[in-house]
Design a protein that fits this description.
Length: about 675
């Protein structure tokens, strides 16, 4: 046995002994001293590494070794369906302070809308960890069920959803209604599936969420039926009947219609009550038969919800308060600097791949030099990794007791080749970040161009990173505006570009030359200006000229724009090179009128009902928003217009009763013109 053990590399034996000792130490601290230095999940991760070593080197196995299982992957493959109602995702919150700030923002916006102090109440609902589903009923019959997808396009999974017994195939009234909910798999059925997997000798599933997502995309509905999925419905996205006036009433309405609603929702009047509910469910969540990853907080009053509206990507009236993130341990194999599109250098830890929160992670940002020093993270360190909000990998702790003495400290280099010029770098005054001294290195240019053509900005199909890199390398583009001057002959010179692909790309470029104001701003890569801020800037200033001339004081009036962001925007537009970039772009690009809000509907609210002759409902809504108006779902005395088409419902009669002006599509389009 001794000879067999000696055949195992010395560093692996050392790692194994360190793991054993560390696990034993933390077990002792927790069970004997009632002291917890790392999370249960991080400790489980160390135990898993022990199993991995033992699997490869059975001679090292010891009797006290822990065990854990690894996940499989979901299946895909369905027809696409366009959502009639855009599917938003919630902004995330992680602390009590985040919720207090959310409450402050809500009250501030409502005070501005109503001209007086408004005190909203809230509902708290459990955030079920599953797969979002959107179900549409026509005349009370289930006709379509789709996954969320990207918010605009989902997958048609109607036949599979029909196998879920908690989904009603019809509702008591012959109403048109679209509802949203979460499909989930119970822990009990999840365990039964894994028993079957084990008997087959196949990999075990990671968690019920992954199985639910994979099951709902099964091509054979019989398999879906066998897995006994369940669902909670939590929202009415569209309704032709009388829309409930509060979130609590909405949930009760769903119950009346036979939908399965999670019973643990509460009506609250203060942030303190919300935080107590959140803390209570952190402790109680594991007792339920479904996974819960947080609490969804919504303004209870529908009137206030509609007044608050949406940002570019999420509702202002709701937020998801997440539970503490899942944690695992892994090893830092290297630390590499990444050059961003604004020249900022971000240290990125290259990690031994590890499964965390249901996905494999091999990279984690270390943010800046100060964060590296604070953590004292070194190449070779064993670290605790978590996904903040189950999204962004983050190193939160270094397990220094795992060090062998071979770990290497990271020192910021004085030069970085990718920075261009002589490679010089400098620390940004007043910040923890470093940046390239040269302002337009090839690495920066590449990242800026990648961003410019991305879906968030100009959305030029067929012009991905590889194409951009080749165009830059060959000197075919040097500024953004050059993209719009490319000719067929230029592109045919590119590797793997046939005539059809060139024609498609040129068509995409032509289409992109008409761009909305928010996307125009996003494409400029202004430091500190992300997607949401770009939409807020476009909504506030309405025109590019007003934005270019804005001063710091004007910019600070916008919610979410502080001193640093305001100063960056002003400085960017004052820079002569940036002025040239904008001017050159404007020679080839039109900021589309239909995407720039003018004052035609400023201060006006619309309710839509019935089928319009030529416009889709979403098309009409887009026109209203693009011209400064707001859409609400309920008719009241405050409603400016009801836009009515054929087969208009009760909203039409309510508008007549209240004396609200009713307009046709023809009248509506005349108002736009």
């Amino acid at each position: 046995m001794g000879n067999m053990k000696s055949s195992v590399a010395k560093d692996i034996q050392e790692r194994y002994e360190k793991l054993k000792k560390t696990v034993d130490t933390h077990r002792y601290n927790y069970h004997v001293l009632n002291k917890q230095d790392i999370s249960d999940e991080a400790l489980d991760s160390l135990k898993q590494e022990l199993v991995d070593i033992e699997t490869q080197y059975p001679v090292l196995i010891t009797p006290d070794s822990p065990t854990q299982r690894v996940a499989g992957k979901p299946l895909k493959g369905f027809l696409k369906v366009k959502h009639k109602i855009a599917q938003w995702s919630f902004n995330d919150a992680f602390t009590e302070e985040d919720i207090r700030n959310f409450d402050i923002r809500v009250r501030k916006v409502l005070a501005q809308k109503y001209g007086k102090e408004v005190v909203p109440s809230y509902t708290c609902e459990l955030k079920i960890d599953g797969l979002k589903i959107v179900c549409e009923y026509e005349n009370g019959i289930l006709v379509t069920a789709a996954t969320r997808g990207d918010g605009e396009i989902g997958e048609d999974v109607t036949n599979n959803v029909k196998t879920i017994e908690s989904i009603p195939l019809s509702i008591p009234e012959k109403q048109n209604i679209i509802v949203e909910g979460e499909v989930w798999l119970s822990k009990k059925h999840f365990e039964e599936l894994n028993i079957i997997q084990k008997k087959k000798g196949e990999s075990l599933y990671a968690n019920p969420r992954n199985v639910a997502a994979g099951t709902i995309r099964q091509l054979d509905p019989k398999i879906v039926a066998e897995r006994k999925l369940d669902v909670f419905i939590y929202d009415i996205a569209r309704f032709d009947g009388d829309t409930p006036q509060t979130q609590v009433e909405e949930l009760k309405k769903l119950q009346v219609y036979g939908f399965k609603v999670n019973q643990h929702f509460v009506h609250m009047n203060s942030v303190e009550e919300i935080c107590l509910f959140w803390k209570k469910w952190q402790k109680k969540k594991d007792k339920e038969d479904y996974w819960i990853d947080g609490v969804v907080i919504k303004v209870n009053e529908r009137e206030y919800q509609e007044a608050l509206g949406y940002t570019g990507k999420a509702p202002r009236f709701a937020v998801a308060l997440k539970f503490p993130a899942e944690q695992v341990t892994t090893v830092v194999e290297d630390i590499v600097l990444q050059v961003g599109r604004t020249g900022v250098l971000t240290p990125v830890a290259h990690l031994r791949p590890v499964l965390v929160a249901g996905s494999t992670v091999s990279r984690a940002t270390l943010h800046n030099e100060d964060e590296i020093k604070r953590l004292d993270v070194r190449v070779g360190d064993t670290v605790v990794l978590q996904k903040a909000g189950d999204i962004i990998p983050d190193i939160v702790q270094v397990l220094k007791e795992m060090r062998t003495g071979k770990e290497k400290k990271y020192v910021f280099p004085k030069t970085v080749l990718e920075c261009g010029g002589d490679g010089s770098v400098e620390r940004i005054p007043g910040q923890a970040a470093w940046r390239c001294v040269a302002k337009n290195s090839f690495a920066q240019q590449k990242r800026k161009f990648h961003h410019f053509v991305s879906k968030k900005a100009y959305d030029i199909e067929g012009c991905g990173p590889k194409v951009i890199d080749q165009l830059l390398k060959d000197g075919l583009v040097g500024t953004y505006s050059d993209i719009f001057t490319l000719k067929k002959g230029d592109l045919l010179l590119l590797p793997r570009f046939a005539e059809t692909s060139v024609d498609n790309l040129l068509e995409s470029i032509e289409k992109a030359s008409r761009v909305s104001f928010p996307r125009f701003i996003i494409g400029l890569s202004i430091p500190q200006v992300g997607e949401e801020t770009a939409y807020d800037l476009a909504e506030h200033f309405k025109t590019l000229n007003k934005l270019r001339l804005a001063n710091v004081e004007e910019l600070r009036e916008i919610e979410g724009v502080g001193d640093i962001v305001a100063q960056e925007i002003v400085a960017w537009f004052e820079n002569k090179d940036n002025k040239k970039v904008v001017d050159n772009l404007l020679e080839h690009v039109d900021i589309s009128v239909e995407n720039v809000k003018n004052n035609a509907f400023a201060g006006k609210t619309f309710v839509l009902t019935g089928t319009l002759p030529t416009l889709s409902r979403d098309g009409a809504k887009k026109i209203i928003r693009d011209h400064g108006g707001d859409i609400v779902s309920t008719v009241s005395k405050a409603t400016s217009y009801v836009l009515a088409g054929e087969n208009a419902g009760t909203k039409l009669s309510k508008a007549q009763d209240l004396g609200v002006e009713i307009i046709s599509e023809e009248e509506f389009l005349k108002m736009v013109n």
